[in-house]
Amino acid sequence: MKRRDEMRIESYRERAVRSRRRRERELKKTRFILMNAAIALVVILIVFVVAIIKLNGKGNSGSKDYTQENIKKKDTKKAKKPVMTATPAPTKKAVTQNTGVGAKKWIRTDLDKDKPMIALSFDDGPYTPVTSKILKVLKKYDSRATFFVVGNRIQTYKEILKESYDMGNQIGSHTYDHEDLSKKNKKQLISEMRKTNRELRSVIGCNATLIRPPYGNISDLMRKVIKIPMMYWSVDTDDWKWRNTAKILAGCKNVKDGDIILMHDLYPSTANAVKKLVPRLRKKGYQLVTIDELFYYKGIKAKAGKVYASGRK
Ligand SMILES: [Zn+2]
Protein backbone atom coordinates (compact mmCIF):
# COMPACT_ATOMS: atom_id res chain seq x y z
CA MET A 1 0.00 0.00 0.00
CA LYS A 2 2.65 2.34 1.02
CA ARG A 3 4.48 1.58 -2.09
CA ARG A 4 1.49 2.30 -4.34
CA ASP A 5 0.96 5.58 -2.56
CA GLU A 6 4.58 6.45 -3.02
CA MET A 7 4.30 5.66 -6.69
CA ARG A 8 1.23 7.87 -7.05
CA ILE A 9 2.96 10.73 -5.27
CA GLU A 10 5.90 10.17 -7.51
CA SER A 11 3.79 10.40 -10.63
CA TYR A 12 2.11 13.60 -9.29
CA ARG A 13 5.49 15.12 -8.72
CA GLU A 14 6.63 14.18 -12.17
CA ARG A 15 3.54 15.66 -13.71
CA ALA A 16 3.94 18.84 -11.64
CA VAL A 17 7.57 19.15 -12.72
CA ARG A 18 6.67 18.56 -16.37
CA SER A 19 3.91 21.15 -16.32
CA ARG A 20 6.18 23.67 -14.58
CA ARG A 21 8.83 23.12 -17.23
CA ARG A 22 6.24 23.57 -19.94
CA ARG A 23 5.09 26.85 -18.35
CA GLU A 24 8.66 27.99 -18.05
CA ARG A 25 9.28 27.18 -21.71
CA GLU A 26 6.17 29.07 -22.71
CA LEU A 27 7.17 32.04 -20.55
CA LYS A 28 10.59 32.03 -22.16
CA LYS A 29 9.02 31.96 -25.62
CA THR A 30 6.70 34.86 -24.76
CA ARG A 31 9.57 36.83 -23.31
CA PHE A 32 11.62 36.18 -26.45
CA ILE A 33 8.78 37.35 -28.68
CA LEU A 34 8.16 40.44 -26.51
CA MET A 35 11.86 41.30 -26.50
CA ASN A 36 12.08 41.00 -30.27
CA ALA A 37 8.95 43.07 -30.69
CA ALA A 38 10.41 45.76 -28.42
CA ILE A 39 13.70 45.79 -30.37
CA ALA A 40 11.81 46.00 -33.66
CA LEU A 41 9.75 48.89 -32.28
CA VAL A 42 12.87 50.76 -31.17
CA VAL A 43 14.50 50.22 -34.58
CA ILE A 44 11.38 51.44 -36.38
CA LEU A 45 11.26 54.47 -34.09
CA ILE A 46 14.92 55.30 -34.81
CA VAL A 47 14.40 54.94 -38.56
CA PHE A 48 11.35 57.15 -38.31
CA VAL A 49 13.15 59.87 -36.36
CA VAL A 50 16.11 59.80 -38.76
CA ALA A 51 13.73 60.04 -41.70
CA ILE A 52 11.99 63.04 -40.14
CA ILE A 53 15.31 64.77 -39.46
CA LYS A 54 16.42 64.14 -43.05
CA LEU A 55 13.14 65.37 -44.43
CA ASN A 56 13.41 68.52 -42.34
CA GLY A 57 16.91 69.12 -43.60
CA LYS A 58 15.79 68.71 -47.16
CA GLY A 59 12.84 70.95 -46.51
CA ASN A 60 15.12 73.71 -45.26
CA SER A 61 17.56 73.57 -48.13
CA GLY A 62 14.62 73.30 -50.44
CA SER A 63 13.15 76.51 -49.16
CA LYS A 64 16.57 78.14 -49.43
CA ASP A 65 16.75 77.13 -53.06
CA TYR A 66 13.34 78.50 -53.51
CA THR A 67 14.36 81.86 -52.09
CA GLN A 68 17.43 81.96 -54.28
CA GLU A 69 15.25 81.19 -57.21
CA ASN A 70 12.98 83.98 -56.09
CA ILE A 71 15.86 86.38 -55.86
CA LYS A 72 16.96 85.33 -59.32
CA LYS A 73 13.44 85.87 -60.56
CA LYS A 74 13.36 89.27 -58.92
CA ASP A 75 16.66 90.14 -60.51
CA THR A 76 15.36 89.15 -63.89
CA LYS A 77 12.32 91.30 -63.26
CA LYS A 78 14.57 94.18 -62.24
CA ALA A 79 16.72 93.53 -65.23
CA LYS A 80 13.78 93.75 -67.52
CA LYS A 81 12.55 97.00 -66.01
CA PRO A 82 14.64 99.37 -68.12
CA VAL A 83 13.07 97.84 -71.18
CA MET A 84 9.85 99.62 -70.31
CA THR A 85 11.10 102.95 -71.62
CA ALA A 86 11.15 104.82 -74.85
CA THR A 87 14.31 102.89 -75.72
CA PRO A 88 13.41 99.91 -77.89
CA ALA A 89 13.43 96.62 -76.03
CA PRO A 90 16.87 95.03 -76.28
CA THR A 91 16.68 91.89 -78.34
CA LYS A 92 19.34 89.25 -77.76
CA LYS A 93 21.29 90.81 -80.57
CA ALA A 94 21.18 94.28 -79.15
CA VAL A 95 22.07 93.54 -75.55
CA THR A 96 25.27 95.49 -75.99
CA GLN A 97 23.38 98.63 -76.84
CA ASN A 98 22.62 101.50 -74.55
CA THR A 99 19.44 100.62 -72.71
CA GLY A 100 17.40 101.78 -69.89
CA VAL A 101 16.05 104.67 -67.94
CA GLY A 102 18.70 103.72 -65.34
CA ALA A 103 21.41 105.25 -67.49
CA LYS A 104 19.68 108.64 -67.42
CA LYS A 105 20.87 108.93 -63.85
CA TRP A 106 24.32 109.59 -65.23
CA ILE A 107 23.43 113.04 -66.52
CA ARG A 108 22.60 115.85 -64.12
CA THR A 109 20.80 118.65 -65.89
CA ASP A 110 21.59 121.39 -63.37
CA LEU A 111 25.32 121.80 -64.08
CA ASP A 112 26.88 125.01 -65.41
CA LYS A 113 27.97 124.32 -68.98
CA ASP A 114 30.20 127.42 -68.95
CA LYS A 115 32.28 126.21 -66.02
CA PRO A 116 35.17 123.80 -66.68
CA MET A 117 34.58 120.09 -66.28
CA ILE A 118 36.76 117.09 -65.61
CA ALA A 119 35.75 113.42 -65.63
CA LEU A 120 37.51 111.17 -63.17
CA SER A 121 37.42 107.53 -64.24
CA PHE A 122 38.32 104.39 -62.30
CA ASP A 123 39.03 100.97 -63.85
CA ASP A 124 39.34 97.40 -62.55
CA GLY A 125 36.98 97.67 -59.54
CA PRO A 126 34.77 97.48 -57.72
CA TYR A 127 36.86 96.90 -54.64
CA THR A 128 35.05 97.97 -51.49
CA PRO A 129 38.06 98.98 -49.34
CA VAL A 130 39.18 101.50 -51.98
CA THR A 131 35.94 102.28 -53.85
CA SER A 132 34.15 103.21 -50.61
CA LYS A 133 36.86 105.78 -49.77
CA ILE A 134 36.58 107.35 -53.21
CA LEU A 135 32.78 107.50 -52.96
CA LYS A 136 33.05 109.28 -49.62
CA VAL A 137 35.20 112.02 -51.14
CA LEU A 138 32.98 112.39 -54.21
CA LYS A 139 29.92 112.74 -52.00
CA LYS A 140 31.58 115.30 -49.75
CA TYR A 141 32.49 117.54 -52.71
CA ASP A 142 29.26 117.09 -54.67
CA SER A 143 31.20 115.32 -57.40
CA ARG A 144 30.71 112.30 -59.60
CA ALA A 145 32.92 109.91 -61.52
CA THR A 146 32.77 107.00 -63.94
CA PHE A 147 33.63 103.50 -62.76
CA PHE A 148 34.56 100.96 -65.44
CA VAL A 149 33.91 97.73 -63.58
CA VAL A 150 35.06 94.20 -64.30
CA GLY A 151 32.05 91.89 -64.75
CA ASN A 152 33.39 88.94 -62.79
CA ARG A 153 33.84 91.17 -59.69
CA ILE A 154 30.28 92.50 -59.64
CA GLN A 155 28.62 89.82 -57.51
CA THR A 156 31.39 89.96 -54.89
CA TYR A 157 31.21 93.75 -54.61
CA LYS A 158 27.61 94.38 -55.53
CA GLU A 159 26.77 96.47 -52.44
CA ILE A 160 29.41 99.09 -53.15
CA LEU A 161 28.51 99.06 -56.86
CA LYS A 162 24.87 99.73 -56.04
CA GLU A 163 25.86 102.47 -53.63
CA SER A 164 28.05 104.06 -56.28
CA TYR A 165 25.25 103.92 -58.84
CA ASP A 166 22.68 105.29 -56.39
CA MET A 167 24.97 108.27 -55.78
CA GLY A 168 24.76 109.09 -59.48
CA ASN A 169 28.14 107.80 -60.55
CA GLN A 170 28.33 106.34 -64.03
CA ILE A 171 29.00 102.61 -64.31
CA GLY A 172 30.82 101.53 -67.43
CA SER A 173 31.95 98.14 -68.67
CA HIS A 174 35.56 97.03 -68.39
CA THR A 175 34.55 93.60 -69.83
CA TYR A 176 33.77 90.44 -67.90
CA ASP A 177 37.20 88.81 -67.69
CA HIS A 178 39.55 91.77 -68.23
CA GLU A 179 41.21 90.06 -71.17
CA ASP A 180 42.63 91.67 -74.30
CA LEU A 181 39.52 92.16 -76.45
CA SER A 182 41.57 92.81 -79.58
CA LYS A 183 42.44 89.09 -79.61
CA LYS A 184 38.83 87.90 -79.42
CA ASN A 185 36.50 86.79 -82.19
CA LYS A 186 33.00 88.11 -82.69
CA LYS A 187 31.32 85.46 -80.56
CA GLN A 188 33.73 86.04 -77.69
CA LEU A 189 33.30 89.82 -77.90
CA ILE A 190 29.53 89.54 -77.71
CA SER A 191 29.82 87.13 -74.80
CA GLU A 192 32.12 89.53 -72.88
CA MET A 193 29.66 92.38 -73.37
CA ARG A 194 26.57 90.34 -72.64
CA LYS A 195 27.90 88.68 -69.50
CA THR A 196 28.97 92.02 -68.02
CA ASN A 197 25.64 93.64 -68.83
CA ARG A 198 23.77 90.73 -67.27
CA GLU A 199 25.70 91.25 -64.03
CA LEU A 200 25.17 95.00 -64.19
CA ARG A 201 21.44 94.66 -64.73
CA SER A 202 21.15 92.32 -61.75
CA VAL A 203 22.62 95.00 -59.47
CA ILE A 204 21.93 98.44 -60.96
CA GLY A 205 19.12 97.58 -63.37
CA CYS A 206 20.69 98.84 -66.58
CA ASN A 207 23.42 98.14 -69.11
CA ALA A 208 26.70 99.99 -69.51
CA THR A 209 26.58 102.90 -71.94
CA LEU A 210 30.38 103.04 -72.31
CA ILE A 211 33.17 100.49 -72.40
CA ARG A 212 36.82 100.90 -71.58
CA PRO A 213 38.77 98.15 -73.35
CA PRO A 214 41.32 96.45 -71.09
CA TYR A 215 44.91 97.54 -71.83
CA GLY A 216 43.47 100.12 -74.20
CA ASN A 217 43.66 97.60 -77.03
CA ILE A 218 41.13 98.03 -79.83
CA SER A 219 40.68 95.98 -83.01
CA ASP A 220 38.68 96.71 -86.16
CA LEU A 221 36.36 93.88 -85.23
CA MET A 222 35.67 95.56 -81.87
CA ARG A 223 34.68 98.77 -83.66
CA LYS A 224 32.10 96.79 -85.61
CA VAL A 225 30.77 94.48 -82.94
CA ILE A 226 30.69 96.67 -79.82
CA LYS A 227 27.53 98.73 -79.89
CA ILE A 228 28.54 101.41 -77.40
CA PRO A 229 31.28 104.09 -77.48
CA MET A 230 34.77 103.02 -76.38
CA MET A 231 36.62 105.19 -73.90
CA TYR A 232 40.24 106.15 -73.67
CA TRP A 233 41.60 108.90 -71.42
CA SER A 234 43.52 112.13 -71.81
CA VAL A 235 45.41 111.99 -68.50
CA ASP A 236 47.05 108.75 -67.38
CA THR A 237 48.10 108.84 -63.72
CA ASP A 238 49.87 105.43 -63.91
CA ASP A 239 48.58 104.95 -60.38
CA TRP A 240 48.86 101.14 -60.71
CA LYS A 241 52.56 101.54 -61.42
CA TRP A 242 53.48 104.20 -58.84
CA ARG A 243 51.20 103.18 -55.98
CA ASN A 244 52.32 106.51 -54.61
CA THR A 245 49.97 109.37 -53.71
CA ALA A 246 52.41 112.19 -54.47
CA LYS A 247 53.28 110.78 -57.91
CA ILE A 248 49.59 110.32 -58.80
CA LEU A 249 48.91 113.93 -57.80
CA ALA A 250 51.89 115.13 -59.81
CA GLY A 251 50.40 113.42 -62.86
CA CYS A 252 47.25 115.52 -62.45
CA LYS A 253 49.07 118.83 -62.14
CA ASN A 254 48.31 120.15 -65.61
CA VAL A 255 44.76 118.95 -66.09
CA LYS A 256 42.38 121.11 -68.08
CA ASP A 257 38.76 121.50 -69.10
CA GLY A 258 37.39 118.36 -70.78
CA ASP A 259 40.04 115.98 -69.49
CA ILE A 260 39.28 112.38 -68.66
CA ILE A 261 41.61 111.15 -65.91
CA LEU A 262 42.46 107.45 -65.68
CA MET A 263 42.87 105.79 -62.29
CA HIS A 264 42.15 102.38 -60.71
CA ASP A 265 40.02 101.86 -57.60
CA LEU A 266 42.20 99.01 -56.38
CA TYR A 267 44.96 100.81 -54.53
CA PRO A 268 44.85 102.72 -51.21
CA SER A 269 47.35 105.19 -52.69
CA THR A 270 44.79 106.03 -55.38
CA ALA A 271 42.09 106.65 -52.76
CA ASN A 272 44.52 108.92 -50.88
CA ALA A 273 45.29 110.84 -54.07
CA VAL A 274 41.56 111.29 -54.78
CA LYS A 275 41.09 112.63 -51.27
CA LYS A 276 43.49 115.48 -52.10
CA LEU A 277 42.78 115.86 -55.81
CA VAL A 278 39.01 116.34 -55.60
CA PRO A 279 39.01 119.35 -53.22
CA ARG A 280 41.94 120.85 -55.19
CA LEU A 281 40.07 120.65 -58.49
CA ARG A 282 36.84 121.90 -56.92
CA LYS A 283 38.74 124.87 -55.49
CA LYS A 284 40.00 125.66 -58.99
CA GLY A 285 36.38 125.78 -60.16
CA TYR A 286 36.14 122.40 -61.93
CA GLN A 287 32.91 120.47 -61.93
CA LEU A 288 33.70 116.78 -61.53
CA VAL A 289 31.34 114.95 -63.81
CA THR A 290 30.51 111.56 -65.31
CA ILE A 291 31.67 110.94 -68.88
CA ASP A 292 28.06 111.01 -70.10
CA GLU A 293 27.72 114.43 -68.47
CA LEU A 294 30.96 115.61 -70.03
CA PHE A 295 29.73 114.59 -73.50
CA TYR A 296 26.30 116.06 -72.87
CA TYR A 297 27.57 119.50 -71.86
CA LYS A 298 30.36 119.58 -74.44
CA GLY A 299 27.92 118.67 -77.20
CA ILE A 300 29.61 115.40 -78.15
CA LYS A 301 27.29 112.78 -79.55
CA ALA A 302 29.31 109.66 -78.81
CA LYS A 303 28.76 106.90 -81.32
CA ALA A 304 28.90 103.13 -81.03
CA GLY A 305 32.23 101.61 -81.96
CA LYS A 306 34.07 104.97 -81.92
CA VAL A 307 36.88 105.80 -79.51
CA TYR A 308 36.92 108.93 -77.34
CA ALA A 309 39.66 110.23 -75.09
CA SER A 310 38.34 113.56 -73.78
CA GLY A 311 35.45 115.99 -73.75
CA ARG A 312 37.17 118.14 -76.39
CA LYS A 313 36.08 117.95 -79.96
ZN1 LIG B 1 41.94 97.42 -66.54
Automatic annotation (TrEMBL):
Transmembrane segments: 32-53
SUPFAM superfamilies: Glycoside hydrolase/deacetylase (SSF88713)
One Pfam family this sequence matches: Polysacc_deac_1
Region called Disordered, residue ranges: 63-97
Keywords tagged on the record: Membrane, Transmembrane, Transmembrane helix
Classification via Gene3D superfamilies: Glycoside hydrolase/deacetylase
Domain NodB homology as annotated: residue spans: 116-289
GO molecular function: hydrolase activity, acting on carbon-nitrogen (but not peptide) bonds
Compositionally biased tracts (Low complexity): 82-96
Listed InterPro entries: Glyco_hydro/deAcase_b/a-brl, NODB_dom, Polysacc_deacetylase_ArnD
GO terms for biological process, alphabetical: carbohydrate metabolic process
Record keyword Membrane present: yes
Protein name: NodB homology domain-containing protein
Upper taxonomic lineage: Bacteria, Bacillati, Bacillota, Clostridia, Lachnospirales
